[in-house]
Amino acid sequence: SQTIHQWPATLVQPVGSPLSLECTVEGTSNPNLYWYRQAAGRGLQLLFYSVGIGQISSEVPQNLSASRPQDRQFILSSKKLLLSDSGFYLCAWSWGEETQYFGPGTRLLVL
Amino acid sequence: GNSVTQMEGPVTLSEEAFLTINCTYTATGYPSLFWYVQYPGEGLQLLLKATKADDKGSNKGFEATYRKETTSFHLEKGSVQVSDSAVYFCALSGNSGGSNYKLTFGKGTLLTVNP
Prior knowledge:
Chain A has 111 residues and is mostly beta strands. Chain A is built from no helices and 11 strands. In chain A, 0% of the residues lie in helices and 58% in strands.
């Protein structure tokens, strides 16, 4: 069966510091991968998606970037965090059809 | 573009009460429709889905019927439990090319069930 991991689970970072969040999927090959952000009390916003290694599509202009160095690894990064980057970051995968399966999330607090 | 509107709540019910969370959508074509559930501090879990008009998705006592004529996908449960307390998200899919689909989410509805 497939599983999706995210780490770290929780992160507290100062404004201006770099960020790296990691997502890995097990039990499938060539999945589509997604990064979402969920701000407090709000819905989910799609940030990036990837259909293959090195292929990244950005949904909204922002302070973040994404990379896919391996088939089942998806990384969310920032060079300098802003206060507005605080939120709950969710990674998801899909394969061959529409249903997306989500990871446990990373809670980021920028101070 | 695609959009999803769901009742924002919060919704507070007593155990064994009947639950309805309304969801309507705007989309081109014939999207698939989903309900996801998010328990406190966790990621989203797929609750149920329907892929074409008049389909009924069901799971764990929850049901939703894909109504094309009213562009709706309301979530219902006949008797809620305390363990159903969570945030519920309605979503629809749209094809963005090849095998990739994007999900458009509603803003979520917080459900609290009291004993």
